[in-house]
Design goal:
Elements (H helix, E strand, L loop, with lengths): L13 E7 L3 E8 L2 E8 L5 H16 L6 E8 L1 H7 L6 E6 L5 H4 L25 E4 L2 E2 L5 E3 L3 H12 L5 E5 L8 H13 L4 E4 H4 L5 H31 L5 E5 L5 E3 H4 L9 H16 L5 E6 L4 E7 L2 E2 L1 E2 L2 E3 L2 E3 L3 E2 L2 E3 L5 E6 L3 E8 L18 H7 L17 H16 L3 H23 L11 E5 L3 H11 L4 E4 L6 H6 L4 E12 L5 H21 L7 E11 L6 E4 L10 H17 L8 E12 L20 E6 L5 E8 L8 E3 L2 E4 L4 E4 L3 E5 L5 E5 L2 H4 L1
Helix pairs in contact: 2-7, 4-5, 10-11, 10-12, 11-12, 12-13
Length: 698
């Protein structure tokens, strides 16, 4: 991959990354070797308000002018939020006759958990009266079996338009093989109802599996208008501020794309928010010489967990927005409703429940003093002394300790017959149990041993729980970045432009010629060059990677195997890729079937445009005794209240160290170190925590 030069401290260009979550908006500004960070409350009514507020404050703090901003990179959970929130139907759906209920039927696996008697199916994203069919048929080879009737399509479009919808999703059978009919429907839509947005499955995902393709197209149609409106409003707000930088947004695949390139297929920015943390975690681990990490990003609303093995995030082609499947590449992660703002209730008189509902930024936890009445995880951390009521968000928000204590006493401690601090510890234990199970889901249940990984905790609340979670998972190494509350935003400035293109072609891998595969790849490679050109990537910074999805005949899942494009012209190109598939299948699933026919299912091209990366600044060595900023009475995990040393991150330097228990305060987060752990800081002020064991004690 082509790499551009790192930042030069003499450069005057400014890069800004913004990660907008459900509770806070994280902003980072990088100028040369200077890094400025900030965390401000999100503004759910208009996200751009919180973004502009944060940018304005950082520009003033750094002494930078708006016109010096060269690149603006943004991430948000807005797409996911739009899907999971209940809204009036605004999308119509057109498909091939006989397939009207594909969104309803799905994969016919009715219950994800056969023992859950309370499970109810999620309603289809498009209600049945807004789903229409047309007479047409194309087979899997792309051959037209039944032509499209223009008059029937016009009548169907008028019928849908009369319902008042704003968008239409079009997903015809086998259109991935031949988009002719879908393209004609789009032409007729511009003629009959030009005000309607039209999303074509052939333009969003050229891949087989009708249900997942239909769901992905419907999601794109559902979110396109509000996403376009939001991005245009944000662009306008940036211009009004004097910022005319190139604007990019994080995609679900861990790469970035321009705002303009995102507007046609915003389904690709699903899970945009958490991806910055994964990319930031990968960049941090690389800078620290660590190859295997588990990232733990805990904010105010949720916790996101991902695995990076051998320095690379894990990519999956099967993800979900809410309960709706998405057939576009996404970085693999597990998200649970466990954040600082997770609401705490007592159910049935004795069952303590934490999350998944959140207090959000408004009203927020009780301790925010904005009208919140139900206690949260943040309130519990405050009551135990782990949070500083006078230094939350670097002192910009004072926390109400008495209000938090009263809420926990009345709603948790009293009903359970516990003391306030005992109840607060119980809240934290329940939340941590949920998060530990999520870590096991993405590691142990996928054949990975967490003990072989370093646990990386970040987000506003992540460092408060990272050590405790590592203990629960028998992990002995924890890494906390220098600005944990802003790592996700920092990760945005570490991401390359990336696009993933796919074409379905089901065939016997041993019978197709390498030249034929090359020909098909050339079509995708030409398209890849076009999208990189659209995103402003210079030719010298472009690189494309090719791969094939392979499976044993009869399987319903595939493995992606990288291939060498040039070697496809060799006499027997299939021999190497089939052998690689057998080896990978053995590694992933524990067995292989060398005698079974191997099929090619999809061709994939990953187009990458290298961009300039932000760097973590270095700090001088820490000489002499580490200064203790203050002391604070804190309840540790064993239930004991101790007077602990409190350190500030600005006092840390290369070589600074201490033994827990202790607290380290950051402008946007707090690190709580339990007894039995040793902390050491590197030149970038990252905290490397090691658990005392019988081996290292000796």
């Amino acid at each position: 991959m082509n790499k551009m030069e790192s930042f030069d401290s003499e450069k005057t260009e400014v890069n800004i990354g913004v990660d907008t979550g459900g509770t806070h908006t994280d902003v980072v500004l990088v100028k040369g070797d200077r890094l400025h960070t900030l965390k401000v409350p999100s503004t759910p009514d208009d996200l751009s308000c919180g973004i502009i507020e944060g940018i304005t404050m950082l520009l003033k703090e750094s002494g930078c002018e708006p016109e010096s901003v060269a690149r603006f990179v943004y991430a948000s959970t807005l797409v996911t939020n739009l899907i999971v929130e209940e809204q009036e139907p605004s999308v119509g759906f057109i498909t091939t006759e006989g397939f009207r209920d594909v969104l309803e039927i799905g994969r016919a696996s009715r219950k994800p958990d056969v023992y859950d008697i309370h499970w109810r199916p999620t309603p289809a994203l498009v209600p049945r009266h807004l789903r229409k069919t047309v007479k047409e048929r194309i087979n899997f080879r792309g051959e037209v079996l039944h032509p499209l009737n223009d008059d029937e399509v016009r009548a169907t479009l008028r019928e849908l338009s009369d319902t008042g919808i704003s968008s239409i999703a079009v997903c015809l059978l086998h259109s991935y093989a031949n988009p002719e009919h879908e393209l004609r429907i789009a032409e007729l839509a511009r003629e009959v109802c030009p005000d309607l947005d039209v999303s074509l499955s052939s333009g969003i995902v050229r891949e087989f599996r009708e249900y997942e393709r239909a769901s992905t197209t419907a999601i794109n149609a559902f979110v396109r208008r509000p996403i376009v409106t939001h991005l245009e409003k944000l662009e306008s707000a940036l211009r009004d501020k004097g910022i005319n930088a190139g604007s990019y947004i994080m995609r679900g695949n861990g790469g970035i794309s321009t705002f303009a390139g995102t507007k046609e297929a915003p389904v690709n920015i699903t899970h945009s928010g958490p991806m910055g943390g994964i990319i930031g975690g990968a960049a941090l681990a690389k800078a620290c010489g660590i190859s295997n990490i588990i990232t733990f990003d805990m904010g105010g609303t949720s916790a996101d967990i991902s695995v990076i093995a051998d320095g690379q995030p894990i990519l999956t082609n099967r993800s979900h927005a809410g309960s709706h499947p998405i057939l576009v590449p996404m970085l693999d992660l597990v998200t649970i409703g466990a954040g600082g703002g997770s609401l705490v209730t007592v159910e049935g008189g004795s069952a303590l429940r934490v999350g998944p509902r959140s207090a959000g930024s408004r009203p927020g936890p009780v301790c925010y003093g904005q009208g919140g009445e139900t206690p949260t995880v943040t309130d519990a951390n405050l009551v135990t002394g782990r949070l500083n009521a006078d230094y939350f968000l670097a002192g910009r928000r004072k926390l109400d300790v008495d209000g938090a204590r009263q809420a926990i006493q009345e709603q948790v401690a009293g009903p359970l017959g516990l003391g306030v601090e005992e109840a607060a510890l119980g809240i934290l234990s329940v939340a941590e149990a949920h998060m530990a199970n999520a870590v096991r889901l993405i590691s142990v249940e996928r054949g990975l041993d967490p003990r072989e990984f370093t646990f990386v905790g970040f987000g506003g609340a992540g460092p408060l729980h990272a050590v405790r979670l590592a203990e629960a998972l028998s992990m002995n190494r924890v890494l906390i970045p220098s600005a944990p509350g802003n790592l996700s935003a920092m990760g945005l400035l570490s991401a390359d432009v990336r696009h993933d293109l796919v074409r379905t072609m089901v065939t016997d891998a041993s019978t197709i010629s390498g030249e034929k595969i090359q020909t098909l790849f050339r079509e995708l490679l030409a398209e890849a060059e076009e999208v990189l050109e659209r995103d402003g990537v210079k030719p010298g910074s472009r690189e494309c990677f090719v791969a094939l999805d392979l499976r044993y005949q009869g399987q319903n899942y595939e493995l992606t195997i990288p291939v060498n494009f040039e070697r496809l012209a060799d006499s027997n190109p299939s021999d190497g890729m089939i052998e690689s598939f057998h080896e990978q299948h053995q590694k992933v699933y524990g067995y292989s079937l060398p005698g079974r026919v191997v099929q090619i299912v999809n061709l994939r091209v990953t187009a990458v445009g290298s961009v300039e990366k932000a760097q973590w600044p270095s700090h001088p060595d820490c000489s002499g005794a580490l200064p203790v900023h203050s002391t604070r009475s804190v309840v540790t995990g064993d239930g004991k209240r101790r007077e602990l040393a409190v350190y500030r991150i600005d006092d840390m330097g290369d070589g600074a160290s201490f033994e827990g228990p202790a607290v380290v305060e950051y402008p946007g987060s707090t690190l709580f170190v339990e007894p039995g752990w040793h902390a050491r800081f590197d030149a970038m002020r990252n905290a490397h925590l090691t658990r005392f064991t019988s081996e290292n004690k000796a």
